Amino acid sequence: MFGNLGDMMGMMGKMKEVQSRMKEAQETLNTLTATGESGAGLVRATVNGTKQLVKIQIDPDLMKAGDNPADDREMLQDLIVAATNKAMDNVEPLIKDHIRKATEGLLPNIPGMDLGNLMG
User: Fold this and answer.
1) Residue 40 exposure: Cα atoms within 13 Å on the Cβ side
2) Which of 49, 63, 91, 106 is the most buried (most CB within 10 A)?
3) Residue 95 domain-assigned?
4) What pLDDT sits at residue 120?
5) Which whole-number Å values give the CA distances from 118 to 18, 22, 63, 95, 100, in the listed order?
């Protein structure tokens, strides 16, 4: 009878440790960064692990006015969006790996259980 209670207490303690490590991992996500490029590297966007855009780099040649500034502006906007989306895609596996490492050894490896989704 007391064995089950002891197991329950041990599981509760382990869950508290998981929560603590998850919180710590969440607080350090901003240290992760990933970059995405578009236009063969003419535009580079960098995002952090909290999915905030932290840097945009635009090749100086793109800033030179061409024959149609409206077309140039639209192209630049498209390149920025594409580079940012690639950076977001590139940071996703880094976030999952960061969370996995933070909780490693605490939880059994249950197929289909993805703690990375807990990060929102």
Assistant:
1) 2
2) 91
3) yes
4) 47
5) 12, 9, 41, 11, 11
Domain range spanning residue 40? 33-119
Residue (of 75, 78, 53, 80) closest to 64 by Cα position: 75
Handedness of CA 70, 86, 38, 43 (dihedral sign): positive
Q: pTM value? A: 0.73
CATH number, position 67: 3.30.1310.10
Residue 44 belongs to some domain of the structure: yes
**Number of domains the chain contains:** 1
pLDDT digits (tens, 9 = 90+) for 54-71: 999 999 988 886 777 778
Distance CA 96, CA 91 (A): 9
Chain-wide mean pLDDT for the chain? 84
**Per-residue confidence (pLDDT) for residue 66, from 0 to 100:** 73
Strand-pair partners of 48: 33
Whether 23 is in a domain gets the answer no
Report residue 58: phi and psi, to 5°.
-120, 125
Half-sphere exposure (Cβ direction) of 69: Cα atoms closer than 13 Å: 3
Q: Is residue 105 part of a domain?
A: yes
